[in-house]
Amino acid sequence: MKQVYPLQLQKKTQISMQPYLHSSLKNKGLSSRKTQSGIIMFITLISLVVMLLSSIALVRSTDTSMLIAGHLSFRRDITNQAERAIPAIRVIFQGTGALSTVNSRNSDQISANYYATIQSSNAFGIPNALINTGSATYNTNVISDATSGVTVRYLIDRMCLPTTANAPASAANCGLTLSVTDNSTSGPDAVTAKGPDIPIYRISVRATGPRNTETYMQSTFTVN
After folding, report:
1. Cβ–Cβ < 8 Å for 118, 157
2. Nearest CA to 52 among 60, 105, 25?
3. Which residues, given as ranges, of the chain have pLDDT below 50?
4. Spans of all domains in the chain
């Protein structure tokens, strides 16, 4: 009678297959982990690049905002200095100032930066002599603020055509405005009398800041 050992052969086959299956599964697990690690690293690098670009954009935006704010602050300060200078300039038309009399205003007064006629200007109405920083005709009279570092230069001209140089203002050649006189009466029936026509004067101001920031300002007025 022959003996058959099917169980033993099956047992040997199972024993020989287990190491193979274990090794195969192990290799697949390692390969999957390496793939996942590579994807995570790639995503991490992309995230870092995005964060870096965002940080750079934020820094540049902050710098730009600070630069704009600083520039506006300088311009505002220079404008204030120019406005403050106009009343100081008009003092020469009062009391014993260089331009306090009508006769003194009928001719050019270079030492006071004054011209009896309209000066040539650019397209914006700014006198060319004021734009030219090297002009000696107005550089003798400047208003400087050592604290703020602002320098104010100015030019005064009478609104008259060149034909009225060294002559009184006339309605034919000058810009005049009406004036009134007080008749020393009061009440609802008081009537003001018409006074003489008086010429119009213009002050052009150029203010320069410590960073070469410039502001131009003009003002017209009359003198009784």
Report:
1. yes
2. 60
3. 7, 9-15, 21, 136
4. 69-222
